User: Fold these one by one.
Assistant:
Number 1:
Amino acid sequence: MSGRPRLDLARLPTPFEPAPRLAEHLDVASVYVKREDMAGYALGGNKLRQLDFILAEAIAAGADMLIATAGSQSNFCRSLAGAAAKLGLGCHLHLRARMGTEHVGNLLLDDIFGAEVTFTQNTDPWHPAIKDEIEAIADDYRRQGRSPFVVQLTGVSANVGVAGWMSGAAELVEDFKAIGRMPDIVVVVCGSGLTAAGLALGFKHLEVPTRVMGVSAQQPEARLRKWIIETANAAAAWMGIETRLSGQDLDIVDDEIGPGYGIPSAASLAAVKTAGRLEGLVLDPVYTGKGMAALIGAAEKGLFGKASSIVFLHSGGTPGLFTHASAFERSAPQ
Ligand SMILES: Cc1ncc(COP(=O)(O)O)c(C=O)c1O
């Protein structure tokens, strides 16, 4: 849909599966799960379709070293490391140490995929010092005769990241046609918000009435909404499409952040178990579990009619589950 060059590393279309036991539990007509966790290599996730676009740009620019920064258990960085391995490119991940440097979950996979990992003590992803640290790493590679390419979803790569999820919106519209109805709502958990931005922009562009409900796992509602609108509209201008998003075009909730970003909440731990026990789904307690907790909470508050059709975007994050085993042990038995 975006007309941008792309690789085909992700296995698309991802499955679109009915979840009838979950629908019965929520007392709605139907629930479908879009299985981005099954998007292919490196344990899947919502970043893979964005990486198909971002890495097409990197290759066109002659890159031989991909550089990115995020939290130490970043799903995005693990996906990037997996893609770099498949493409035979180097990968340097500069990760915030605060969430732990234990060799488990995504950090273990980063190592298995051959990425070079360094840590920063800086705790704020938006702090300008992080940009300086990344520039210094890129300069080092340039001095060694390498051709580094910085991938930063909340910065230089944002437009392409939105384009990736506009194509995801187009794929969902095909899924909707296959089930013969336009669902009322797609629930998606938000970090940077680029996935929700691309989906909402894509649905509006394609004149699909399905609403996007973004569940913040990180930022307060007002900041996330503002960022999503600005980023979607900048990407639309960059893609040369007329459609623009406004504040009314999507719903954002921030009451599932719980104790904080990257930290499981009682509701997310319970939601992971509910999805597992009803549908055999593997969610994680810091992203998709919070999205599912919001969906369950909204159903319990009676916000959906009995005739509603709901889509849950399973955005991946599977390795993170295993780093939170002790939180499940501490949580109340069900
Ligand atoms: C598993 C998972 N789900 C959802 C998200 C949120 O996606 P976005 O950053 O596009 O809002 C992330 C972000 O890292 C993630 O790792």
Note: The domain at 16-45+156-328 is CATH 3.40.50.1100 (Rossmann fold).
Number 2:
Amino acid sequence: MEFSRYNSSHSSAPSAPELPPDSYDHQQHQYQGYYGNPSPSPARPSSSYGQSGGFPAGTQADVVRAFQMVDRDRSGFIDERELQQALSSGYQRFNLRTIKLLMFLFKNPYDSLRIGPGEFAALWSCLGHWRAIFERFDRDRSGRIDSMELRDALYSLGYAVPPSVFQVIVSKYDNGSGKAELDFDSFVECGMIVKGLTDKFKEKDKGYTGSTTLSYDSFMCMVIPFLVSYD
Ligand SMILES: [Ca+2]
């Protein structure tokens, strides 16, 4: 694999950021390093990567059911279409672009484009965290995250996205009326990209200063998988 260095740090499942407390004070950022939330460590189910496959102990029955319902050939793995079907049964319908991103992030890096029970359980748990974040920041209860809600969410989670980048993000989810409205699946997509790239950068920025020196090679290995793996 070309991305062996990249993948070597990818031994456990990606996760959602920790939800800040309700009384979260933006000023706290000053004392927590550049990213506000230097070491998010949400609960992760024990990974079953590389094992014979089976759900981690304690996996909820509805998660097992959702997986088995779409794994029709009982191969123990599901592809992106099956994943889309499984997640759409638990949440709203997920667009295929988000599914491809999730598949890229959660699949065993040494395996093909499919995920097994362990990865599925990790993904499901991660989406539960994102759902809580989505509901917290959907302040007007519209069922969508608008640009102000998105800005608050990203900043409160500790992602100091520069205004120019934020504008690019907002324009990507513009519904044609000049306003961004993110459904849950788009919110997950946006959040996973911002978090994923920030995490990759933080691996290089050990002191959480907000800057580091990157080789061209490292930079490309960091960014390109996010651009080409799922579109
Ligand atoms: Ca809203």
Note: The first strand starts at residue 145 and ends at 146.
Number 3:
Amino acid sequence: MGNGGHGISIGAGPGKILPGFNVLNCTIGRPADGEGNIISGNKLDGIYIGGDEFGPCNITIQNNLIGTNETVTDMIPNGRNGIELDGTRPIMIGGPAPHEGNYIGGNGLSGIVLTGVAEFYTDNVGIHGNSIGVGAQQTYIGNNLDEVTIDADSRNNTVGEPDPDPNDDQFPGNVIAYNERSGVAVIGNLTRQNPIRGNYIYSNGGLGIDLGADGPSIHHDPNLAEGPNLWLHAPIFTAIQIVNGDTVVDATLDALTNAPFTVDFFANKSCDPLGYGEGKFPLFSQSVTYDQHDNIHIVIPGEHHNLSMTTTDLFGNTSEISTCGVPYIVNTTNDLPDDNPGDGVAKTGNLLPGGRLECSLRAAIMEANTTTDSQTILFDIPGAAPFSIVLTNFLPPLTAPAAIDATSQQGYAFGHPVVKVDGVNLG
Ligand SMILES: [Ca+2]
Ligand SMILES: [Ca+2]
Ligand SMILES: [Ca+2]
């Protein structure tokens, strides 16, 4: 292997169809033994497909090793992306049946990029059954940027699907792990209706799913009718309890409408240090309509821990992955202590207008420090930014594995913090 340009190039990009690959029937690799390709060590992309003239061709890309060695135990990087689709439709990368999926890893940029320019955006791509960033025996073969990047107005592309039968040999999801940045990034104001469901997403350097490639997007307004996957918010857990051997979940969402949404739950061996669950084991899906208070109440059969979730709307927009478990939400600039550390609730004992329990940053840290579980501390202080928390004495050091995310505060813009912790009185 090792071409000076792309490994396989079709269409408007540099290079031509290379001999030796079965692209005339619009397949790059087939599921049978020995019918996949090793597409590694190329200077540019492993596979580049550009233009729209191949649209009717229904190209399938199956059973290939892209950026790896023959035994999928090491990386032989392509210089750019593993697969770049640039204004193409429709294409299937992998598939649910055995040996239809590709191994895609070790590439200099992303594992898979869907991109394009005006009118020639990439749509109707299916990405199923692939191992992206993960080699044989769980080997680390992460890609250098995002595993899957969906950009430039691309729409109606499907990354995984819930598995209708976990007991058969079909698996329509993807394994997406060990990447330097996020698992799946959705970028661009008009990039939408890209469902991301039923995947095993874990151990990525950034978020499991990152809308906007800007970290947690909870501060983005989901009511603007634009933004990557419409900035759909993940629900926020308000309570998780084990009742009679089942897991009872309460959650809330800033929903624009009360149309049905689907919530997908994932279990994780442990919470991600960023505080946002990735989604390692797809567990349970349910269609829900939020009540007038935007609350949902769902019983998941069996006892599960370190839960995270996504929501997907009727049009196929999927949110980022929620926090791992119930977050503490700071809703005041007061600096009062927790009134009962260890009771599982971060609260000062005061009530806010509307009856919410007041939760200070100090109370959240104090409550988090009473457990060894990972905790996420978010901010939702009412009123106009900026906010200043004037300390009455030093905050206790965090002893729990907790993530404090002040980008969750409404009013935050990328790189412009709006919550200030002010030690002016501490001398
Ligand atoms: Ca199955
Ligand atoms: Ca984001
Ligand atoms: Ca407490």
Note: Residues 12-24 have pLDDT under 50 and may be disordered.
Number 4:
Amino acid sequence: MDNSDSIRALVSVHDVMPETLEQIQALLERLTAADISAVTLLVVPGADWTPAAIDTLHDFERRGYELAGHGWRHRISRIGGLRHRLHATFISRQVAEHLALDALGIVALMKRCHAWFLEQGLRPPSLYVPPAWAMGRIERNALADLPFLQYELFSGILSAQTGRLHPMPLLGYEADTAGRTPVLRLWNRINRHRASTVGWIRIGIHPHDLDLRLAEDLKADLHRFSIHAEYGAVDAAADQRCRLVTSARSPSAADSSMSNTRSNPR
Ligand SMILES: [Zn+2]
């Protein structure tokens, strides 16, 4: 590499719940010290929220952080089949609650999640991130009826308006066992490399990451990728690219050019 000066990073903090607020506050202090204010907080509505904890969410909004929906309870009540069992063992470890549901159940969960923000007097969230980035058994077109504008999947950011997926490498630091550390480190190395061609990267932070084995890698990445964007900028950038292409060429040429550039949005 290294063209990390021109790569735009989306920074998110996962699993905002009453029991993690202390860690979240400490993370935000560190991000502020690193001059990072474009941070999206992924909130779990079905946790045991007290009025004081809800006040903290209002405070986050006042401080300019964007809140996003992140599942409902962030844990599963049952394992739904072999695929889910494998995912639970190797990736999500019992948090991918969509995988235990059918399509109707998934839609109901996401609607309940969105409604909760309004009930608490918070701004309507535009982004939804399924726990462990696992959307489950639901067709993409079923998402069009939901009130969210964007979805973050394992592979990238899906725009609800256009139905387009923007593939985007993802960095993670939840190295809570010795076995996960080398796997995550290799994964991150590959994804940093991918970011230099894609032009975007996601930095997904979990509440305890600063106390875990990849804390130094996380701090280094926050420093390495110095341009921080809001999630909404992904769609805005795609729109702009679309307009540029459309104004430069005939509409049919623009169409084919868009599909060619889909896996490489720069
Ligand atoms: Zn999560």
Note: The mean pLDDT is 85.
